[in-house]
Amino acid sequence: MDNPLLSVQDLTVRFRTRAGTVTAVDQVSFDLAEGETLAILGETGSGKSVTAQALMGLVPRPAGQVSGGRILYDGTDLLARPRSETRRLNGTELAMVFQDPLSSLNPVFRVGAQIGELFRRRRGASRSEARRKAIELMDRVGIPAAARRVDDYPHQFSGGMRQRVMIAMAIALQPRVLIADEPTTALDVTVQAQVMALLAELKAEHRMAMILISHDLGVVAGVADRVMLMYAGRVAETGGLREVYETTGHPYTRGLMASIPALDGPRERLAPIKGSPPDLMRPPAGCAFRPRCEFATGICGTERPELMPVPARPESHRAACHHAKEVVADVVPG
Amino acid sequence: MSSPADPLLSVRDLHTGFPIRSALLRRKVGTVQAVSGVSFDLPAGRTLGLVGESGSGKTTLARTVIGLAPPESGQVLFDGRDLLTLPGADLRQARRQMQMVFQDPYASLNPRLTVEQIISEAWLVNPGVVPRNRWATEVKDLLARVGLNPDHADRYPHQFSGGQRQRVGIARALALRPRLVICDEAVSALDVSVQAQVLNLLVDLQAELGLSFLFIAHDLSVVRHISDEVAVMYLGKVVETGTTEQIFTAPVHPYTQALLSAVPVPRPWAAPQRKQILLTGDIPSPVSPPSGCRFRTRCWKAQERCATEEPALADRLGGHSSACHFPEMTVPA
Question: Which chain regions cross the lipid bilayer (chain B) (predicted)?
Answer without folding.
Answer: none
